[in-house]
Design a protein that fits this description.
two-stranded antiparallel ribbon; single chain; 3-stranded antiparallel β-sheet
């Protein structure tokens, strides 16, 4: 009900991003002879953006919102058939709690469901389809590329006992397919529009620390003890800059590397299954990135619901995210004559970030060990191809080698 009411709440937060999507869509689809790509999004983002280009601006906004709502419902139906009603309702609760203001007016549910599709394929050992889906997801929003190592490790564990040469060739083929799709997509985008074809990459290189990120919370805590930090509006986002900008960003980068390696190591050695590795990878990314917007929490909502189920602690994280945007943005930020963040705006963000980090650490250290052997799952009335089938009692040469080393 809160999500439905938010659709009609006053404020320009609903129109801002959709208006940008519409401009980008018209610049591409309306000028196919000389198309222009989005300057901050990957090339395939123009596909969901096309919904915002239908009719006049007011109609386009409604069409875009209806399209995102349809995808959200489709995700609910798919999870219900896959994991049952409990996980489907958990997905609904998480997504609606995190994104009453962003679920319908941002396009992040699209790559979030693509990441969910990757997990579905991994569980069914359909790796030939997983690698292309990761590549396509990267061309919609960059974050699905982080799932490539998880897929490679899951593929290696599923193909155990087939011989080192066969294993290496299979893994290399999958990685190459993904790399060709990503590189080819950006290369084609650069040919079509040299000014913006690589915008999703170049746009984020020199961005300041976004105010909602964990590194920004570290900078705010530093400001409480006298290290200066001040707000800026740059790169179409609200940011925080100061003396600790470099240190906070470096700390985030270090935590990203350590966190990712921890997740992938636990998966490689059999202490974490692929589902938990997918969720852990996305959570580490959210906790360490210097560019964190409210809608990014939607990335993890579907896979977290499927893997972890309902937890009050995660619901609290998502509800605090909804409190930040649009509520605190509307009432706790002074936009004129100069941009100012109230202390309780930054405190609200800090509370969400602390809880997010604590829940992520708890998730990473509490994920149980993968069973030593389990039968390959059946899919409907079909069968799992023989090259992906895992028989109980087969050796695990890759994990055993790593563990021995």
């Amino acid at each position: 009900m809160g999500a439905l009411v938010s659709v009609w709440l006053p404020g320009d937060w609903r129109q801002a991003d959709v208006a940008l999507y519409r401009t980008d869509a018209l610049a591409f689809w309306g000028h196919l002879a000389h198309p222009s790509l989005p300057h901050e999004y990957p090339p395939l983002a123009v596909i969901p953006f096309a919904l915002a280009a239908i009719g006049p601006p007011s109609v386009g906004q409604d069409c875009f919102a209806l399209g995102m709502a349809a995808l959200f419902v489709l995700g609910f139906v798919a999870i219900r058939r896959w994991k049952g009603s409990s996980r489907a309702w958990t997905y609904g609760a998480y997504a609606l709690a995190a994104g009453p203001a962003t679920l319908l007016f941002r396009y992040d549910i699209v790559p979030a469901l693509m990441a969910l599709g990757c997990l579905w394929l991994i569980e069914r050992r359909r790796f030939a389809a997983t690698y292309p889906l990761i590549g396509l997801g990267t061309l919609v929003k960059l974050f699905p590329l982080a799932l490539l190592p998880v897929t490679v490790i899951a593929h290696a564990r599923a193909a155990r006992g087939r011989g080192t040469g066969v294993l290496i060739r299979g893994l290399a083929a999958g990685v190459i397919v993904c790399a060709v799709i990503v590189a080819g997509g950006f290369a084609l985008g650069h040919v079509i529009d040299p000014a913006h074809g690589l915008g999703a990459i170049t746009y984020n290189v020199d961005r300041p620390v976004q105010v909602e990120s964990v590194p920004a919370t570290l900078m705010w805590l530093g400001s409480l003890v006298g290290v200066p930090a001040h707000p800026v509006y740059a790169s179409v986002s609200y940011d925080l800059v100061g003396s600790l900008s470099g240190v906070a960003s470096a700390a985030g980068d270090l935590a990203l590397v350590v966190g990712m390696l921890w997740v992938w190591w636990r998966q490689l050695t059999g202490r974490m299954d692929a589902g938990h590795a997918v969720v852990g990878t996305l959570l580490v990314l959210l906790c360490t990135t210097g560019v964190l917007s409210t809608q990014f929490l939607l990335w993890v909502a579907p896979v977290l619901a499927v893997v972890e189920g309902f937890r009050y602690r995660w619901l609290a994280v998502f509800l605090l995210t909804a409190l930040i945007f649009p509520v605190l943005y509307q009432v706790a930020v002074e936009y004129s004559p100069v941009l100012r963040y109230s202390w309780w705006f930054l405190a609200g963000i800090g509370a969400r970030n602390v809880l997010l980090v604590v829940c992520t650490v708890w998730f990473l250290i509490s994920s149980g060990r993968v069973p030593a052997a389990h039968p390959a799952p059946s899919v409907g009335t079909g069968h799992v191809p023989s090259e992906d089938r895992v028989e109980p009692g087969e050796p695990e040469p890759l994990a055993s080698l790593v563990t021995t080393a």
